[in-house]
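Input structure tokens:
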């Protein structure tokens, strides 16, 4: 990245003729950014961009998205290549450290992650404080944040070694906590991690095995799980990642930051959409009802939206959805599942993609559209879908947090606002209020 202010951008006030020249910053790819950090000092004005549609919040070397072309790259590697040639742990290493590992580096990383998969035994008791019918995302917000209460030896954010240990702990322990939250909601005993298994095999075992029976992990399902994890691993400055960064900018500990990311991910406009897609397909029920729901999605008076459709950045295709669609067929075939929801989803996609409303607004199926069908076929309860997103995204959050903490000039994130409230007025005593 070059940020030598060779190129500039001049803003002119049409009324006064005053102008302000600002540096234009160039990245490896993507639109140039106008560096407005000196704008207020030079003009006395702020910028206003409430949903950050045109605002870059940071420089980052981790992930690049070209929404028009449907490109997603991590550290320069295309997501489709990673999904088909890499493993989740190798992708984690890439995101965290910037390069694909050598065999020795991968072995050491795998050992470090595996070594940290267990959680403090006292955390088991934390779970029993939750109602059995609690949404597992509610449990995850609590238990991941609570890691800070157990691992005091890795909370010094100014120590790079402690930051690294926290990163490893989060990548290793979030799947264990996710599986525990599923088991707790089912009334089944927690299953301890099995360090002889791969990351994805171990996760499946912790979710699906019971002590009374032998559990054999299907290689096809383990591969599909790994691929789902890779596809969700990072997505640059989305809502949850931005939440993690802003929390971290105040020098909060990493466990608290990731917990805030989980809270942000839960919303149906973000990671919560995968659960909502399945609920929507169940609500639609049959193909003949699709037109009714398409009309509802188009009706501005109706809050209903086609879940799993649309994206702030992708305006052509979501490359993650393409890969998942292929995995979906493989998984359903392996399991011998003939899920009518898949046919319904495909028909919904076909009709929506031909509809003028969706075409004009460039609304395409996103990653959440197909993930729910695969996860359901694998046996995950619908309420676990967003938890699985959180498991995969933990490495993205942690990598973005680590990158931010390594910035020499880290400052607290503090947006400004356009105040539109009441002008100053005198306090009104109670008896004079109307
Ligand atoms: N169904 C119907 N209309 C839609 C949809 C949809 N799913 N998504 C966007 N629109 C319309 C929207 O009403 C607006 O129309 P108009 O211009 O007439 O007012 C236009 O398309 C632009 O939408 P927007 O809300 O301004 O777009 P956004 O960038 O703010 O929101 C989004 C992006 C993903 C939140 C939105 O498309 C959405 O709510 N989709 C459904 C939820 C979903 O699938 N979320 C998962 C996103 S991918 C995974 C992740 O990032 O976590």
């Amino acid at each position: 990245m070059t940020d030598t202010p060779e190129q500039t951008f001049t803003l002119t006030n049409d009324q006064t003729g005053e102008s302000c020249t600002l540096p234009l910053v160039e990245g490896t790819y993507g639109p140039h950014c106008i560096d407005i950090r000196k704008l207020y000092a030079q003009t006395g004005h702020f910028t206003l961009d409430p949903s950050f549609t045109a605002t870059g919040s940071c420089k980052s070397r981790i992930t690049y998205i070209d929404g028009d072309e449907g490109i997603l790259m991590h550290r320069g590697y295309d997501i489709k290549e990673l999904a088909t040639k890499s493993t989740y742990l190798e992708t984690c290493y890439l995101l965290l450290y910037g390069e694909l590992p050598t065999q020795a580096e991968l072995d050491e990383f795998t050992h470090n992650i595996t070594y940290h998969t267990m959680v403090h035994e006292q955390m088991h008791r934390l779970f029993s404080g939750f109602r059995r019918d609690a949404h597992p995302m509610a449990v995850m917000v609590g238990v991941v944040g609570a890691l800070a209460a157990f691992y005091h030896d890795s909370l010094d954010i100014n120590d790079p070694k402690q930051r690294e240990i926290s990163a490893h702990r989060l990548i290793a322990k979030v799947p264990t906590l996710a599986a525990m939250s599923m088991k707790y909601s089912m009334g089944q005993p927690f299953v301890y991690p099995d360090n002889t298994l791969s990351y994805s095999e171990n996760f499946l075992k912790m979710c699906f095995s019971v002590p009374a029976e032998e559990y054999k992990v299907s290689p096809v399902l383990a591969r599909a799980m790994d691929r789902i994890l890779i596809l969700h691993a990072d997505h640059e400055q989305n809502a949850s990642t931005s939440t993690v960064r802003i929390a971290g900018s105040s020098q909060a500990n990493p466990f608290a930051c990731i917990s805030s990311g989980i809270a942000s991910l839960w919303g149906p406009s973000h990671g919560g959409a995968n659960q909502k897609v399945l609920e929507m397909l169940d609500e639609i029920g049959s193909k003949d009802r699709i037109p009714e729901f398409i009309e509802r999605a188009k009706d501005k008076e109706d809050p209903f939206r086609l879940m799993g459709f649309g994206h702030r950045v992708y305006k052509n295709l979501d490359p993650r959805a393409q890969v998942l669609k292929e995995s979906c067929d493989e998984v359903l075939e392996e399991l011998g599942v003939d899920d009518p929801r898949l046919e319904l989803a495909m028909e919904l996609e076909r009709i929506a993609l031909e509809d003028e409303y969706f075409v004009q607004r460039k609304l395409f199926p996103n990653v959440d559209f197909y993930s729910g069908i695969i996860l359901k076929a694998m046996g995950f309860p619908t309420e676990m879908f967003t938890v699985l997103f959180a498991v995969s995204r933990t490495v993205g959050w942690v990598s973005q947090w680590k990158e931010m903490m390594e910035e020499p000039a880290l400052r607290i994130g503090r947006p400004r606002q356009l105040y539109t409230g009441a002008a100053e007025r005198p306090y009104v005593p109670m008896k004079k209020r109307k």
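Residues 238, 269-271, 273, 297, 305-312, 361, 363, 366-368 surround carboxymethyl coenzyme *A (CB under 6 Å). Residues 160-186 form the longest helix (27 residues).
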